């Protein structure tokens, strides 16, 4: 077994989860090798070392958060490798595991599919051309506007240390960042194309391409996303004034996206083309990025997981 781990993920939760994984493997007499990420970009170097020793019967385990998963899936995609992953979540948001591993609580539950050879091919998003540091692939969501502003605010709070880096403070930090971002809700123009359908929005606050219903550490933007097996979802929040914000927040945060809103447009399809003006803050799988003022496309791809 080859284990890549980000020990700092989840404010140190990565190290704890790694110990649980190794204890479980040792109980079965399974050999393993550990690769610990130590700095940004280190995972790419570790993967090269891992692959140089990889045998046909070997398995790859990742211990980390959504950001670590995003990075590893991009590295595999860049190399054209169709290598199944066993994922042990150890982040603060954990949107991927919240959706795909909700019924798996213990390390045994998470790793049993790997030992049984149970592989499931999940949809991922492919972006072209590559956006900033986002890479060409995402596993949860790609968004611009308000959610990007919230992520940037959240990272600013996290950098201050103290309470904001305490394990379990992620949702509090996200909610504080959300309300702080209300002071300067982004506004931008957006052109959308899905198949034969085109739509122009002149006053957009958020656009998100989503593969599962969750973002921001468990916030459910729209429950209809869970019903899409072979499509990606595109959610646009538009023409939003101050009077409409409380009602929309209530719908998303407390009603879990249930109900309709004239300020929320929902689309589905295997691909979409987006054009944003001007450049605005964004997020990919919970990591802050900036969008250039140009067009880009998203389409579906696949990644194999032991699930």
UniProtKB/TrEMBL annotation:
InterPro entries recorded: ATP-NAD_kinase_N (IPR017438), Diacylglycerol_kinase_cat_dom (IPR001206), Lipid_Phosphate_FormReg (IPR050187), NAD/diacylglycerol_kinase_sf (IPR016064)
Transmembrane regions: none
UniProt keyword terms in alphabetical order: ATP-binding, Nucleotide-binding
SMART domains linked to this entry: DAGKc (SM00046)
Keyword Nucleotide-binding: yes
Cofactor: Mg(2+)
Domain of life: Bacteria
GO molecular function list: ATP binding; kinase activity
One Pfam family it belongs to: DAGK_cat
Domain (DAGKc) ranges: 1-130
Family per similarity comment: Belongs to the diacylglycerol/lipid kinase family.
PANTHER family xrefs: SPHINGOSINE KINASE, SPHINGOSINE KINASE RELATED PROTEIN
Name of the protein: DAGKc domain-containing protein
Organism: Aerococcus sanguinicola
């Amino acid at each position: 077994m080859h284990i890549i781990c980000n020990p700092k993920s989840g404010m140190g939760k990565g190290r704890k989860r790694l110990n649980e994984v190794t204890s479980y493997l040792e109980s079965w007499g399974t050999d393993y090798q550990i690769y610990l990420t130590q700095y940004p970009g280190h995972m790419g170097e570790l993967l090269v070392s891992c692959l140089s020793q990889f045998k046909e019967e070997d398995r790859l385990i990742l211990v980390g958060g959504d950001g670590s998963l995003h990075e590893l899936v991009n590295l595999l995609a860049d190399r054209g490798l169709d290598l199944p992953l066993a994922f042990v979540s150890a982040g603060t948001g954990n949107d991927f595991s919240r959706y795909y591993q909700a019924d798996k609580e213990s390390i045994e539950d998470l790793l049993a599919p790997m030992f049984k050879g149970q592989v499931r091919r999940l949809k991922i998003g492919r972006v072209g051309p590559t956006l900033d540091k986002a890479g060409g692939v995402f596993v949860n969501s790609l968004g611009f506007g308000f959610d990007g502003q919230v992520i940037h605010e959240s990272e600013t709070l996290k950098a201050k240390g103290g309470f904001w880096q305490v394990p379990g403070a992620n949702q509090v930090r996200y909610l504080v960042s959300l309300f702080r971002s209300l002071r300067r809700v982004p506004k931008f123009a957006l052109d959308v194309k899905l198949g034969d359908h085109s739509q122009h929005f002149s006053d957009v606050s958020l656009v998100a391409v989503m593969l599962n219903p969750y973002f921001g550490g468990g916030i459910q933007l729209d429950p209809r996303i869970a019903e899409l097996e072979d499509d990606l979802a595109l959610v646009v929040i538009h023409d939003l004034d101050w009077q409409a914000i409380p009602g929309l927040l209530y719908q998303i945060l407390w009603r879990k996206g249930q109900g309709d809103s004239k300020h929320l447009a929902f689309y589905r399809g295997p691909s979409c083309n987006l054009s944003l003006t001007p450049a605005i803050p964004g997020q990919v799988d919970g990591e802050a990025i900036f969008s250039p003022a140009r067009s880009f496309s998203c389409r579906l791809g696949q990644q194999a997981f032991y699930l």
